[in-house]
Amino acid sequence: MKKDSKDEIVKAAILLFNSKGYDGTSVRDIANLAKVNTATIAYHFENKAGLLEYCFTHFFEQYIRIIEKSYQSIEKGAKECLKRIIADLVHFHCENYQLASCIYRELSIDSQIAREIMATYSLKEKYYFEKIFERGFEWNEFRPHSIPYLLIQLKGLLMMPFMNTHYMREVLYIFPNEKFFEQKYLKELYLWIDNTLTSAVNIKKEAILK
């Protein structure tokens, strides 16, 4: 058994899930690409469903840790905290764009594992973003807005480039794994914060000062 067989299995699974879909990928396909036997996959993950669950958990454990770590800067301001979280999440997605693409596509399917993720990691994510928005309202950094609709916009912006990387490459000629994309897209996300969340607040402050 290769020392890094577990990592090779995960890499192979992500590639195949992205190209053939979860249902279209067999354990033997994964074993052949990873250059291991099917017994090795069973040893590490039990079966294909266990392998997919591992990918979900591996992705979201890191995702939530990023949010929790960046949230510690909340006392410096809600806007600065939100920008820091977004920057760290965009970097994480770009560094793991194939895994992100696989996860988001499978998460869109109403399955047991998707429901479990919603009941754990998604609720944690919602909690932190809600706290940031509420602090922003309280500290007069953000203009009043419906939090659920802010979450819809923010999640859409964070997820879209990684939900269909084939579309990004073949239609838009944009490559989420390139550093240029990360830098450019982060600027666009900051503009969303400035224009959607804070522009009216800034105008109000300027009017008061005059």
Would you give an account of this structure?
The chain is mostly helical and 210 residues long. The chain has 2 domains: 1-46, Homeodomain-like (Arc Repressor Mutant, subunit A), CATH 1.10.10.60; 53-209, Tetracycline Repressor, domain 2. The chain has 10 helices and no strands. It has helices spanning 5-20, 27-34, 38-45, 48-71, 78-95, 97-107, 112-138, 147-163, 165-170, 179-209. Helix 1 packs across helix 2 and helix 4 packs parallel to helix 7. The protein is elongated, with a radius of gyration of 20 Å.
Comma- or semicolon-separated keywords:
210 residues, mainly alpha, Arc Repressor Mutant, subunit A, Tetracycline Repressor, domain 2, 10 helices, 79% helix, elongated, disordered C terminus
Tell me the layout of helices and strands.
Blueprint: H1 5-20, H2 27-34, H3 38-45, H4 48-71, H5 78-95, H6 97-107, H7 112-138, H8 147-163, H9 165-170, H10 179-209
Radius of gyration in whole Å, from Cα? Answer: 20 Å
Number of domains: 2
Return residue spans where pLDDT drops below 50 for at least 5 consecutive residues: 206-210
- Report how far apart the termini are: 73 Å
* Total strands: 0
The share of residues in helices is over 70%
CATH topology of the largest domain: Tetracycline Repressor, domain 2
In short:
The chain has 210 residues and is an all-alpha fold. The chain has ten helices and no strands.
